Amino acid sequence: MLTLCTAMGIQLGRDPDKTYELTTDNVKKMLAVYMRFKCEIPVLIMGETGCGKTRLIQFMCALQATEAERISSTAFENIVIMKIHGGTTTRDIIEKVTQAEKIAEKNAKDFPTLFTVLFLMRLTLQRLLEQSKRSCVTKHLVVNRLNCTRI
Ligand SMILES: Nc1ncnc2c1ncn2[C@@H]1O[C@H](COP(=O)(O)OP(=O)(O)O)[C@@H](O)[C@H]1O
Ligand SMILES: [Mg+2]
Fold it and tell me: Atom of ligand 1 at shortest distance to CA of 51?
């Protein structure tokens, strides 16, 4: 926890989730993800179902939110999770991106060092290809780009 907090510029304080087992491996992965966030590089996490991808990101976000809340005494929402499935449409994705952009803009204004995560779950390569064949997600995101660089 000390390593993680030091690297993320967080004062060692409240554990945001006591039920989360913080292993050395998890800390290394969080640091790798954090470096990419700092450089505004989108992160793709791959792994079998149940290996801990979602909890890892949720813990990272909770850790940052806890620090922001400690300093500013305001509650922060810094993660938007979207489950991708066969019925997900381009419009669904655009709506979630727009929602995340709004939250990210607010967070950037209220607490500039806080990052906001849009977590797309079950985004398989096959699904991405299917979606882009239907001429949508990737095309839309490339053409319109994200308005807010804080996501
Ligand atoms: N470090 C951890 N400590 C405690 N429970 C964990 C940890 N990582 C994952 N889990 C638990 O394992 C299960 C699967 O984790 P999850 O993050 O949903 O996996 P994935 O997103 O890779 O499918 C969940 O019940 C989650 O709460
Ligand atoms: Mg998951």
Answer: 22
